[in-house]
Amino acid sequence: MVKIPTTIITGFLGAGKTTLIKNLLEKANGKQIAIIVNEFGDLGIDGSILNHCGIEGCDDGNILELTNGCICCTVAEDFTPAMEQLISRNPQPDQIIIETSGLALPQPLVRAFNWPEIKPKVTVDGVIVVVDGPAVLEGKFAANTDAIMKQRDDDDNLSHDTPLSELFENQLACADLVVVNKLDLITAGERDQLMSDISAIVRKGTVIIKSQMGSVDPKIILGLGIGSEQNIYSRDEIQHHHGENGEDHHDHDDFESFIFKLPAINNPDDFKTALREAIIKHNLLRVKGFGAVVGSPMRMVIQAVGPRVDSYFDRPFSETEAYETRLVIIGETGINQAELFRMLDCFAD
To answer: Phi/psi class of residue 99: alpha, beta or left (left: φ > 0; alpha: ψ in -120 to 50)?
Structure first.
């Protein structure tokens, strides 16, 4: 059974999570996306915005609102039944997006994907953290901290009283990709300082991208294929790394994509090492595709988000498929494709 990919989008109140999701829906190209919105209080603003967005395929039945409190504290009562409801649909959604409340710790939510009720049917495609750039620079982490405090006071089910600074670090420690939003409101020097500060908190290999008004191409956000629940315990620790160790900073609208075709790969391990070096050198955001390995009838799936390269064999090549390696490359505009090809071709037959 193919598991339904689920993207967790977290971040403080007002960071731009709902705007990001709305932009993703506008560019879904017919993909059926179900959404779980976790908010509570007097007004269901986020759910209302999505329910009445007017986007084709985004109907009210695809949006579930969890209003009993912070999702990481009501996993058993709210989250699991909501996921089971979506999984039982016929047809099932192509993708699930979960927008957490601004108070949510992502780790308990990711951990819940290992529960036996849902583990065989869904997987965490990736954890996305949306950051309010100007607010973080001011040390507030959110533009309206009073609203966050009120939300905290109103939540009778909240089981953690984590300081905002610690909650921010825990969100970043769990992230597979960080969207630093509202960068049009700060100076270039402030942007550089902000990106450096965030790079010092995230795990090695976490991709960091810049955004204005939550505008990010779905090819960067969806289809990461990480399976975050499989390494949840590494996400509980805050590790400090800097840009030279692999974090990538990218502008939201300055990228290109193309397809590379290569012969069969001689040595998969050497090829993945070369691919990682190429990703770092050419600032590549995403690499995904299939590889042929010399002497093997099996097709190797290749996925890379930032410098983290994963692979596995999924099935034999069919008689109608070309026995070759095909990779989709997504990166910053201006990639030296010839040099990139030379770095990878030497490991192919």
So the answer is: beta
